[in-house]
């Protein structure tokens, strides 16, 4: 069953890569444009749809979780490294655009932090453990 989760991830990754390659060709860029992003969005929708249909058991979900913990961050790190390399060799305009995006992101942190109301503080560890045990007992009953 874990294999089905890994297979779902593989199909989404291959499909996303193809979409990214075709989008790159359509835009006239010699690169994969957003393939990993398309794959991850597809994986979210596919797993959600399969859960709704009752065809994505817990064991299959463990296959996706395993690779998401290992493979996906590695792919994202590799893609970001390539983007930094392209930006550094691309000239001052690429560096300026990256720096402006960074400054804008830092400037928007306070605005984003004000969205929503104040949250509840996290429970003490003892309370959390008691709540987990109670929930586990309820599921077993």
Distance between the termini: 26 Å
Q: Beta-strand percentage? A: under 5%
Largest sheet: none
Radius of gyration: 21 Å
Computed structural class: mainly alpha
How helical, in percent, are the residues?
A: over 70%
Oligomer kind: single chain
Mean pLDDT: 78
Poorly predicted runs are none
Number of strands: 0
Order of helices and strands: HHHHH
Count of helical stretches: 5
Overall spatial form: flat
Summarize the structure.
With 141 residues, the protein is mostly helical.
SSE layout:
Elements lengths: L1 H26 L7 H19 L4 H33 L1 H22 L11 H16 L1
Helix pairs in contact: 1-2, 1-3, 3-4
Written account of the structure:
By secondary structure, this protein is an all-alpha fold. It contains five helices and no strands. The chain has helices at 2-27, 35-53, 58-90, 92-113, 125-140. Helix 3 (58-90) crosses helix 4. The longest helix has 33 residues, at 58-90. The mean pLDDT is 78.
